[in-house]
């Protein structure tokens, strides 16, 4: 994993002021050096500049980027962030075609694939990626992003120059590009957040290459093209065959993602999804006489203060312990206290360049920092719920019948602390409805679907295009902030494509239980009491001391006349809210963003506005 940056302008010869432009490239890649700083590199030619900061995972000695190829007097260059899991097969194909390699990196494979196959090369890749390629023969810049948007790639175009980077902060290091916050920024933050509209960078004029897309910048301008999309079709396998097919895809995805020149670990929460990934990874390493490192996360005194609710019915620690009885792994329990959690709310905004999932981001930021002391690469259980239908809103009648995003149905829960005039000005209902309807129109239609199955597809589509990308965004920023590479086996595009067309009654399995297909596919892999446990999401703190810290910070914001968020808030309602006991069972977003997270989100927004001189 790495950080990539660059710029392109067909009206400027950057080599005429080489030192000046190279210094800009250096500043851009320094701004995202937390993504990996094992090696750095710049490339500057007439119309193009590339910068790269590297986290060494493959070919530790010879993997420096940018990689440049000179073929028939035409120069091709690449900067790349990601991992390609079918590198060996792709490399074999290129060798047969006469290509030779100077490294063992997947970066070089991608560049030569492009030289051989052009833009179609992206369809051959199984992995997570964001990369830029300069085609000196055709004089164009191409920006590619993986199918599910696991790796970020932001850009902006101003005065005929395209500037891009792995994170938004890199763009602000380029001359004349400054952070601007407008009404649409607030519509995203307050109406949609912590999710984002696909392709929307929240700041004015900041965009992101959409998942499954690539962009082409040439003298004719900029165009973005879709290379991958879900396709609806008939599922022809019976249930037994579907279980076997699913089991094969899961095992193959995990084993492919174990490829690395440094040791790979897993996050082991005690939930079904991370336990499946851990079991498959542990078995893979055991066959090679190696032991897997695993890590679980929780909060100080949660054993004392935990409050069971419909979203989080029980604690995870007992199930972690059950896994450790079944698998020989090197496990570490990681704990976070309420003071660190509150302070890291600000670092979480720094990492994302935007307000995020409040202490849910902050805690993962903290845990990733600790994991990085042991490993550079981690496999996670993200995305299984979106793909296999694990969330409550897949099953609840009100969510099924709603005409809005099912994880965020109550607009009042998002807006009640804000000034009424400000909220009216934003026209949030219209904005949210427009985004929702745009998404619904993109759901791939299958004529044989019943009305109920059609709605199931819509909910699945919304989850994968909105909720899943939010969690992937969170995972990338919180892990890469400490130079930790997080891989997501469940997001293998083969799994996504296959499970998309599996009928709903199969997804619930023979027992009619949530994610029954996934559980049946992993029968015998996990202890039964874990395999069939009720879903419990990522942990959060229930320690009342955390709320006390948050309320103190909120009062400091309210007492400071220079607080940029102050004119946007209804001060009386905020004061009333912090005097009431928190409700953990009514989140305003997903399953975790409840009472304390509402306060933490306000704190993050205020910091974000302060940081960007609103």
CATH architecture of the largest domain: 3-Layer(aba) Sandwich
| Average pLDDT over all residues | 94
Helical stretch count?
24
Task: Write down the Rg.
Answer: 24 Å
The total of beta strands comes to 17
Summed up, the domain count is 2
CATH class of the largest domain: Alpha Beta
Shape verdict: globular
Question: Which class of secondary structure composition applies to the elements?
Answer: alpha+beta
| Unreliable stretches covering 5 or more consecutive residues | none
- Strands of the largest sheet, in order across it? 2-3-1-9-8-10
Termini gap: 33 Å
Strand proportion, as a percent range, falls in: 15-25%
Largest sheet: 6 strands, antiparallel
Task: Indicate the CATH topology of the largest domain.
Answer: Rossmann fold
Please identify which CATH superfamily of the largest domain we are dealing with: HUPs
Percent helix range: 40-55%
